[in-house]
Design goal:
Rossmann fold, EC 6.3.2.45, UDP-N-acetylmuramoyl-L-alanine:D-glutamate ligase, ten-stranded mixed beta sheet, Mur-like_cat_sf, UDP-N-acetylmuramate-L-alanyl-gamma-D-glutamyl-meso-2,6-diaminoheptanedioate ligase activity, cell wall biogenesis/degradation
């Protein structure tokens, strides 16, 4: 593809699409985009880059005619811009396809995949490479992450060096390409964190999810390497026919990369890692949660196998700053700590609440959940959701986001979740939206409370409304 094209992105505020916009701009292209729901952190990223967001979708957004249109995977037939592209034969492609064609030739593709943990693990891996590049500039990484890595203040970087670190998303690619995006990335080395049923809108069942990951494993060349979690039978099944070396990580005594002596000191986690039974390093991470120690070990294992020094790994993990919307403290107002977390699968919700218990062991923990993802809006995980949310002291559920788009027989019934939690002795309530939640919850909050807001979307700007209401209550008091 030639330089200096006008490239328009339909659905530009998706995490990967916004990052791609910045990457294409760095390549010298003129970039424009459109969306209907611009919200932080990606709207802030695009604003900082000076990339305009046209709202709402309209034919006029495609005038003058762009040279190429990138169609986001959330865009379906019937979208006014997509229909105009098809009618007028403007060339178009998917995010994953242009990423492969424009950025990956001649690079070393290092992919992090899995149902959970891939954003954080990719961010850790990128920071490890960044720290290592201080001694060896050839290790300076390019990367694309599905979130803003706080060590970098961005979700992407493009350099001329070989390492290119990619978060490998199992979600489909575009309306015309229903395969996973990660099948476009052809990894030289791969991390596989977890394999569970998710994305119920595109995968029929767990076997279908496993088939997708097996296809990814099958793309790794014989000279490559896979670092795979060993605490999951699903992961084991997915890597059992790999043509390359597979190194397992976890707590099992037989793990190639084994975590031992895990201990939590507030928001700090420490542990020891052995490699094939031999001491590798004592690691620390300024984040809580056993799941984050596992993520860090996976990143360390992949980096070490690619020649990164142990010293750089230890330093990088010890100075890692997490990812936006991953256990992110948004504000502390009136003695109440408000946490923003992207968790939207029962397993991720469970691990997030466990980590918060470790960080705030003697404080009352609220879980405020918006059922928004295509899986969580369905009833497939209704009982698992109860088990996860029961780790909180107080639970508030919002109404199911755009419930009318889910078939009635498949739809989550949040009232059932609330009833089950109350039956377990966990006070829970169902409220319509962010405004109703703020109005009901603020009078009940005590100094020292921790409120975890769990959503993979904007949640009616509850992140701004809740602290404002608490501050108003405090000033009146």
């Amino acid at each position: 593809m030639q330089n200096f094209k006008h490239i328009h992105l339909i659905g530009i505020c998706g995490t990967a699409m916004a990052s791609l916009a910045g990457m294409l701009q760095l390549q010298g292209h003129r970039v424009t985009g459109s969306d209907t729901a611009a919200y932080p952190p990606m709207s802030d990223l695009l604003a900082s880059l000076g990339i305009p967001i046209h709202e709402p979708f309209a034919e006029s957004n495609l005038k003058p005619r762009p040279d190429l249109v990138v169609v986001g995977n959330a865009i379906s037939r019937g979208n006014v811009e997509l229909e105009y592209v098809l009618d007028t034969r403007i060339p178009f492609c998917s995010m994953a396809a242009i990423l492969h064609d424009e950025f990956l030739p001649g690079r070393e593709s290092l992919v992090v995949a899995g149902t959970h943990g891939k954003t954080t693990t990719t961010s850790m891996l990128a920071w490890i490479y960044e720290v290592a590049s201080r001694q060896n500039p050839e290790l300076a990484p390019s990367f694309l992450i599905g979130g803003v890595a706080e060590n970098f203040g961005t979700s992407f970087k493009v350099r001329s060096t070989k390492p290119f670190l990619l978060e490998g998303d199992e979600y489909d690619t575009a309306f015309f390409d229903k395969g996973p995006k990660f099948l476009h990335y052809f990894p030289d080395a791969l991390i596989l964190t977890h394999v569970e049923f998710d994305h119920a809108d595109i995968y029929a069942d767990l076997p279908a999810v496993k088939t997708a990951f097996k296809r990814l494993v099958n793309l790794v060349p014989g000279r490559g390497r896979i670092v795979a979690f060993d605490g999951s039978e699903n992961v084991s099944e997915c890597v059992e026919k790999a043509f390359c070396a597979v190194e397992r990580y976890g707590f099992d005594p037989l793990s190639h990369w084994r975590l031992t002596d895990l201990r939590h000191e507030g928001a700090l986690t420490r542990w020891t890692v052995t490699r094939a039974g031999v001491a590798f390093a004592d690691l620390s991470l300024p984040m809580a949660g056993a799941h984050n120690a596992l993520n860090a070990t996976a990143a360390a294992a992949l980096a070490a196998g690619q020649g990164v020094s142990t010293e750089a790994i230890v330093e990088a993990l010890g100075t890692f700053k997490s990812v936006k919307r991953r256990l992110e403290v948004r504000s502390t107002v009136g003695g109440v700590t408000i946490i923003d977390d992207f968790a939207h699968h029962p397993t991720a919700i469970r691990e997030t609440l466990r980590a918060l218990r470790e960080s705030y062991p003697n404080q009352r923990l609220w879980a405020v959940l918006e059922p928004r993802s295509n899986t969580l809006r369905r009833n497939v995980f209704e009982s698992d959701l109860v088990d996860s949310l029961a780790l909180a002291d107080r639970v508030v559920l919002a109404s199911v986001f755009k419930s009318e788009n889910i078939p009635a027989n498949e739809r989550l019934h949040p009232e059932n979740v609330v009833s089950a939690l109350n039956a377990r002795g966990v006070p829970a309530s169902l409220l319509a939206d962010a405004d109703a939640i703020v109005e009901a919850v603020v009078p009940q909050l005590h100094e020292g409370d921790v409120v975890a807001i769990l959503s993979n979307g904007g949640f009616g700007n509850i992140y701004g409304k809740l602290p404002k209401a608490i501050a108003g209550r405090t000033s009146r008091a």
